[in-house]
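A further point concerns the way the authors explain their paired sequence and structure data. The central task, working out the structure tokens from the amino acid sequence alone, is never made concrete. I therefore recommend that a typical entry be quoted early in the introduction. An entry of this sort, consisting of the sequence and the corresponding backbone structure tokens, reads as follows:
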Amino acid sequence: MTFFKKIAHQPKRQLLLSLAAEALAVVAFGLFFAKGVTDAGGDGLESFKITFFVMSRSFYLNVPLFIGFIFPMFILLFTFIPNKNSKVYLVPAFILLACGVMVACTYPCYLLPFTEEYAEMVDKSGVHISAEAAVAAAFIILAALLTAVKAFSPAPAYSSPAADKEVKESQTQLEEDAQLEEDAQLEEDVRAGEKEDGERAEAEEELLQDIREEIHSKDGE
């Protein structure tokens, strides 16, 4: 069974959980290009502009938002890999939860590159996280929840390559033993048939001999 067949043949519930979580992460990443913060007037600033911020001719990467929005899509790819120990999916679940919290903190992350005085001024102006960023955070946290559910779902017992080899060798040995037994039985049947044919021929020969003797005795009389 190839790697991709193992993914496709894992329990349907586990596969659907990973697909649903990945879909939520993709939608959240789409919201990365929507408003991240807004103000009372409805004017908003996109999340990607907050993440890749250019200030005073210098580039500023807002790492928390970069991780929060982008990592979930790639982290969830690992949850598609089947594992006999479902608890390993708790690791990406915790990472996703952290990403969701960081996205929920879009507004504090937006204030990071500014001085304390300017951040306080912006804060008093009524700027706050946008509905789009809040939905993205909710979707990522929901993806974390689905991944945690997968961690506590029953997983198939995947055998190791050594075990697979041992099973294959056992099956081959059983097939060989069965073939040898069949050949031995066939040989025994052939010998029994030959013996029966010999006994029949001997009986026929004795019968012919008796007939000849009877004929000779009649001729002598």
